[in-house]
Amino acid sequence: MSGKNERNVLRSILASLISILIGMGMGSLVILIVGLCSKNLTLKSTWEGIRLIALGVFSTGRNAAGELTFGFNPASMGNMLFRATPIILTGLSVGIAFKSGLFNIGAAGQYLAGTCATLFIALSIPSKIVPAWLIWLLAFLGGMAAGALWGAIPGMLKAFLNINEVLACIMSNWIAANVVTWLFDISNLKNIVESTKSGYIYKTTFNGIATPKLGLDKLFPGSQVNGGILIAILLAVLMYILISRTTLGYELKACGANRYAARYAGIKDRRNMVLSMAIAGAMAGAAGSLYYLSGNTEFYWSTYQILPAAGFNGIPVALLASNNPIGIIFTGMFMSTLSISGLQLTNLTAYNEYITDVIISVIVYLSAFSLVIRMWLGGRRKKAAQIGKEDE
Amino acid sequence: MAFLIRQTLIYAVPLMVVALAGVFAERSGIINLALEGIMIFGAFIGVLFVHLVQKWGWFEAAKEVGNWGAMQLFLLMAMAVSAALGMVFSLLLAFAAINLRADQTIGGTALNLMAPALVLFLIRVINNQNTMQMFKGDSASWFMLKKKMLGITGSNFFIDTFLNKVYLTTYICVLVFIVLSVILYKTRFGLRLRSCGENPHAADSLGINVLKMRYHGVMISGALSGMGGFVYAMTTANCTANGEVAGFGFLALAVMIFGNWKPLNIAGAALLFGLFKCIAASYYSLDINGDGVYLLKEIGLSSNFYRLLPYLITLIVLAFTSKSSRAPKAAGIPYDIGSR
């Protein structure tokens, strides 16, 4: 059994690596085409662009001769970890829902709900009376709770009224975007102190609240990293334990495999669906919460036309990791490595960071049929054997 | 009142066309979640076309001498180009969903991620900023029809509402909507397309090429949403493209569900949602019956409320009608000949 499992894991990793390579290849191709078509871009800058896509996180700028230099860049590394924090969590959100057969495309809305609750708690409780660590904890837990609540709504609609969760999630995303805008619109948390920051909410540091750095800033000087990444990893491990070592996790997976069979076996399928979406929502809520508790990020509150990208980037993170919570830690970091590459691309060349979003979307596109390809690679005989094994 | 109707039409028309795009895909059996992405792509292509042709100066001369016919022809060409490229873009979804039998939801999501990324990348490379706008002037001064141009001097309710300060795109879209609805319901092609979304195996047994029909469905869907995207950018965003269409693609999805996958209901739903959008955008200065009283302002509801309403209503409608909702039966299920 374990040998079989290992081979399956290996094949998943192989399929993910192939997707990543094709995605980066497509990104390089776009750069090459643009480079060849444009008169302003030389072949040399095209080659620089392609190298930065692959190695951007190790880029250390340009030397005196104008050549790109590479090496260990602590600021980039730290920022990579900082950016990985929310997308590991939204990846967990999407992954957990997938485990129970639900496609949580509503992570963006849950992320906003978490952000909103966190900011209201962190900025409304006066830190003169209540100790800062307690406010931080309340704000973080409040964010998770708000995310869980927002995730539970499409879960309930699916479980009790049989509404397609994808549609319910999309609607709940836009409702969240409007409600959050509305709440901040009538709140007194809008930044009116700094004139350049109109349209933004106060940083949590205005109330003396920020996630502790836990020494990571010494390790990666010049970066935004903080203890949030450790919380994200901890939550990923907890999710792994929940899914693979507890009864609840088994029930969730059973509902995902076949809802009606699970019900026949005495599992409360409706309750589990709502629970799965609530846990997923809590993860996405934690993502928004940690991102804005960092103390160096500001929330643009008039968000009714735009959904946060972190919510959607959870989808490729989860898909690449085959929804394995431990795998999600690594794919989340890979995705944020890509986004650092994009920043370096903007800073150092005539290209810009959106190419990394192109790469990510190609990866999602490939993972739409990666299951099909994996099955095709594995062959039908192995699939039959697999079913036999699981029956034992 | 004239203003309200005109403005509602401007918001409703892209919704209507893109919702019909969703219908064509789903009726053929493919869930097209990528409506938003294709709209974004179409908007970019159309605006780029306008930008380039202005830059080359072809229509500069036409505007100089006031040849409005040529200007409108130019607009039609932009619509056609964005529809064509939208169709090409949707082939990505068609290929994954039909040939590779991929998960249509994830495939559509991929397109939704790809469109803004690609569009913003190209806009930045071409323009060195985050928006693409017209090379010169704004959409109203180039393309808006005024009654003077049509040689109308009188003034009554009909003229003020439908012939003054309107875009030709509105009427083209209504026409396309009607023609395609008739095709869907009254022709052999439409019947076959719908049968593929209900029971593809039965359709196949009667000699209909299900895969080909689904390709047709998705391609029509892509063309309509590409065109809808450009119409949105032209009429409500002053002919600019910046990698987003303010969630109109998803709103169109809501319109489609609200309209129960039927063209006539969709037209009604689109008008309703367009009205909400219009109220949210301009309720502060909206004088409905012209007596100088800003009624909606006096009610005092926040514009956020009107913006939120379409999505909330859709959820509530879904909740109440999910038992009797008539989504095409085979939508979302890849067609496998072997499983007959």
Topology:
The complex is a heterodimer of chains A (392) and B (340).
Chain A: H1 2-37, H2 43-55, E1 59-62, E2 68-70, H3 74-99, H4 107-124, H5 132-161, H6 165-185, H7 216-219, H8 228-245, H9 247-257, H10 259-264, H11 269-293, H12 309-320, H13 325-348, H14 354-368, H15 370-391
Antiparallel strand pairs in A: 1-2
Helix pairs in contact in A: 1-2, 1-14, 1-15, 2-13, 3-8, 3-11, 3-12, 3-13, 4-5, 4-6, 4-11, 4-12, 5-6, 5-11, 8-9, 8-13, 9-11, 12-13, 12-14, 13-14
Chain B: H1 2-27, H2 35-56, H3 60-64, H4 68-99, H5 104-127, H6 139-143, H7 157-162, H8 168-186, H9 188-198, H10 200-205, H11 210-236, H12 248-258, H13 263-282, H14 295-299, H15 303-321
Helix pairs in contact in B: 1-8, 1-11, 1-12, 1-13, 2-4, 2-5, 2-11, 2-12, 4-5, 4-11, 8-9, 9-11, 12-13, 12-15, 13-15
Q: Greatest contact pair? A: A-B, 51 and 45 residues
Q: State the end-to-end CA separation of chain A.
A: 10 Å
Count of extended strands of chain A: 2
Shape of chain B: globular
The CATH topology of chain B is given as ABC transporter involved in vitamin B12 uptake, BtuC
Classified by CATH, the class of chain B is Mainly Alpha
User: Which range best describes the helical content of chain B: under 10%, 10-25%, 25-40%, 40-55%, 55-70% or over 70%?
Assistant: over 70%
- Taken as a percent bin, the fraction of beta residues of chain A is under 5%
Low-confidence stretches of chain B: none
Mean of residue pLDDT values of chain A: 85
* Total of domains of chain A: 1
Mean pLDDT of chain B: 85
State the end-to-end CA separation of chain B. Answer: 56 Å
Regarding CATH, which class of chain A? Mainly Alpha
Based on CA atoms alone, the radius of gyration of chain A comes out at 22 Å
The appropriate CATH architecture of chain A is Orthogonal Bundle
Secondary structure category of chain B: mainly alpha
Sketch the major β-sheet of chain A.
2 strands, antiparallel
